[in-house]
Amino acid sequence: MKAGIVFASIFSFAVSSFAVTSQFRGVNWADKRDNFVSDVLVLSGLSQSYDYESASVVAERVIGQFQEVLGTNSVRIPVNEPTVLRHLAAYSGVLDVALKRGRLLMAYWGPAQPAPPKDMNDWWKMWATLVEKYGKHPNAYFEIFNEPHMYSKEELREIYATWLEKFPDVPRDHILLDGSGLAWNVPDIADDPRFEGCLFAVHEYTFWNMSITTEDGWKGSFKGKVGKYVDRTVCTEWGGAMGPGEKNGVHYDYMDYNQPPNNYFTAYIRGMSDQLREWEMGSFYWPGLRDGDWYSMTKRVGEGANIKLEVVNQSGLDRMQRAWADTVAIEQPKDTTVTDTTSTDTVVADTSVKDTASHAADSIAPVSPKDSTVAPVASTDSSAVADSSAALHGNVRWQRMSPEPLQVFSMTGRFLGRVDLRVGAGVDVSALLKNAGYAGGVYLVRGGGLNAQIRVK
User: Fold this and answer.
1) pLDDT tens sequence across 375-422
2) Tens of pLDDT along 113-159?
3) Cis before residue 114, ω within 30 degrees of 0?
4) Residue 328: pLDDT over 60
5) Which has fewest Cβ within 10 Å: 55, 176, 183, 303?
C-alpha cells in the first residue's frame, strides 16, 4: 500500500449549538486610516470615489485572495453611520461579495476613540438599514459595537438589550456582543441572562501589557478576559508585528514566530495561537489587509482588478493558521496514492499546493473525519505538502457512479440540499455543485464516502 498526504474536512455534520466557535477562520479588512473615522469608510484598495461596481471588483480580488492565499472562510468588515446611511449603494458592493464568498462579520466602529456615536438616532437607523438588507442572510453576522469602552458595564448591557428588542428576528447566534472596555471583559456582558444564545467578542493585543514576555503569560492574560464563556466567544481582533517597524523606540526586524519567543511579540503570537487552538475558538486576525500597517498579514500590490496580495511574514501566517482549530496538520511519507481496503470508491483531489512554511510541523491541513471512509489525497506531484487551504482548492473528482446523492451543507452546518451523483465516473464535484445552482463559495459535502470542503467558483 502506498501512502500520501491526506486532505479532508474534520467538520462534524451532526451540528450542535455552539460548543465551539471554530467555524470562523477570519481576518479583518481595514481602512488605511484605521476604521475610527467620521466619514465614509474607504477600505484598503478602494478608491475615494468607489461605486458598487468598482467596490465589487476590489472585494473579489481582496476577499478571494484572503481565501486562496491565507485559507480564510470569514472576513470582518467595518460599518459606520456615514457609510451605511449615505453610501450603502456603493459599499454594498463589498458586503455582497463577502456574503457570496463566506461569512461576513459587520462590526460597528465609532468616529474616534473614546467618543460614542455622534447621534444615537443615526446609529439606530444604521443598524435598522443593515438588518433590513442583510438580517436574514445565513452568512451575515453583526458585531454591535467594537471596543465600547466609553460605556459602563450597565450602560453597555442596556444598549445591547435594546438592540435585541429592536431586532428580534436576527438569529442570536449571528449576533456578537463585545466585552466591556476594549472588548476586555466578556463576563461583564455574558453574565446577563438577557443575552442567552448570543456570541461574545474579545480582543487581545501586546500594547495593553508589554511586560508579558512568555507564552504562558499571554495565555493567562487571554483567559482572564474570556472567563467561563469560551464556547460562545470569538476573538474578533488579535495581531502583532509582521513586518519591520518601531515601537517605543525599539526597532523590530522580521520575526520568526515558529521559533521560541525572544520578545513580547513572539511570545504573544505563539501563546495566542496556541490558546485559540486549544479552546477551538474562532478568530479574526488584525488585519488581513490594511495599507501601511506593520501588523498586516498581507501587502497589497496593484489596483482594482490587478490587486495582488503578498504574504508579509510566512511564520506569522503559520501561527494564524495554527489558531484555527478546525484544521490540523498530517504529513505522511511523500508518495501520492492512498489505497482504501474497505471500499472500491476513490476520491482524488488534484492539488499543486507547495509548503512555504519554515517548519513543516506548523503547516496546517484538514484531516480525515472519523466517519469518513475515503479521503481526498494529494496529486501525483509528490512535492505537494499539506496547507490549510488544500482541500478547498483541489478539483475533487468522483471516480465511480454512486447511488447515494451528495449532501450539501453551508460552512455553518446548515443543510442546503442533495445533488445526484449518478452521472458517471470522473465528475468534478465543484462543477457538479455549480451546475446544480450553488453560488460561488465553500460548501461542506458528504456522501458515498466523500466528506470534504468544496469550493465553487
Assistant:
1) 222 222 222 222 222 233 345 554 444 456 777 876 555 667 777 655
2) 778 999 999 999 999 999 999 999 999 999 999 999 999 999 999 99
3) yes
4) no
5) 303
Instruction: Count Cβ atoms below 10 Å from residue 204 Cβ, excluding itself.
Output: 25
Return the H-helix or E-strand segment holding 77.
strand 74-79
Axis-axis angle for helices 81-101, 52-65 (nearest 10): 50
Give the dihedral of Cα atoms 127, 130, 133, 134; nearest 10 deg. -110
DSSP 107-152: EE--SSTT---S-HHHHHHHHHHHHHHHTT-TTEEEE--SS-TTS-
Q: How confident is the model at residue 426 (pLDDT cuts 50, 70, 90)?
A: low
pTM, two decimal places: 0.71
Geometric angle at alpha carbon 353, from 306 and 413, rounded to 5°: 90
Residue 338 has pLDDT above 70, yes or no: no
Say if residue 378 is exposed, middle or buried (CB neighbours under 10 Å; 0-12, 13-18, 19+).
buried
The answer to whether the Cα torsion of 454, 27, 150, 209 is positive or negative is: positive
How do residues 220-258 score in pLDDT, each as one tens digit?
Answer: 999 999 999 999 999 999 999 999 999 989 999 999 999
Q: List, in sequence order, every residue forming a beta bridge with 77; answer none if it has no partner.
A: 106
Report CA-CA distances (Å) from 71 to 234, 273, 455.
18, 16, 12
Instruction: Write down the residue that cell numbers 474497505 correspond to.
Output: 342
CA–centroid distance for 275 within its chain? 17
The Cα-based distances of 310 to 67, 98, 239 in angstroms read: 13, 20, 17
CB 44 within 8 A of CB 71: no
Structure-block grid coordinates of residue 331: 504529513
Residue 370 reports pLDDT greater than 80: no
| Site of grid cell 482524488 | 348
Residue of 11, 2, 1 lying closest to 391 (CA atoms): 11
Answer with the residue of higher pLDDT: 417 or 27. Answer: 27
For residue 115, the model assigns a pLDDT of: 81
Which three cell numbers mark 200? 461574545
Residue showing cell 452521472:
423
Report which secondary-structure segment, H or E, holds 416: strand 415-419
347-350/175-178 β-pairing: unpaired
Strand-pair category, 233-238 with 283-289: parallel
